[in-house]
């Protein structure tokens, strides 16, 4: 299947419906055994410039390509943010709750930057609104399956969040190189699993997940 470039058609329909801004939202690291889960947000308004060429769902891009495109995504969006939930929080609260927690933290960054969150629509990849479950004051969320593939704001958020989290895992690799996080980014590769078996889990591991995968 040939990948198609995302567009801003969905975002434009949301602007036509009265949204002051659209906040593209995507998560990264949901299925990893180590490291935080991240939620990226990218804010655009109706006057946004065309999406920079090459930006698409981060899963469809090589690591060098993501690194090259991240500054373009950051420069294109009016504002952006990445919220994190730690491995210990994933163990304590579960992954879905931590998606909401990470998203809440990212939204707080946008609020402090002056983004009109109440007048915006959050365009969230997937079919489940994990954000409002974590918020005391609800926001307007539009869920869409494959939004990271089809919608420019969500693709930009995907790239921003992926590069941010990858850099954190590369930093953690320096502390514990035997897990090879610089290459596997905390996901369950054969070498990562073998290192866990040999050395045991680190403070960066989601220990409850290791029991499930044993």
Automatic annotation (TrEMBL):
Residues 20-214 form the RNase H type-2 domain. It catalyses: Endonucleolytic cleavage to 5'-phosphomonoester. A divalent metal cation binds at residues 26-27, 125. It is found in: Cytoplasm. Belongs to the RNase HII family. It comes from Cryobacterium tepidiphilum. This is Ribonuclease. It comes from the Bacteria. One of its GO terms (cellular component) is ribonuclease H2 complex. Manganese or magnesium. Binds 1 divalent metal ion per monomer in the absence of substrate. May bind a second metal ion after substrate binding.
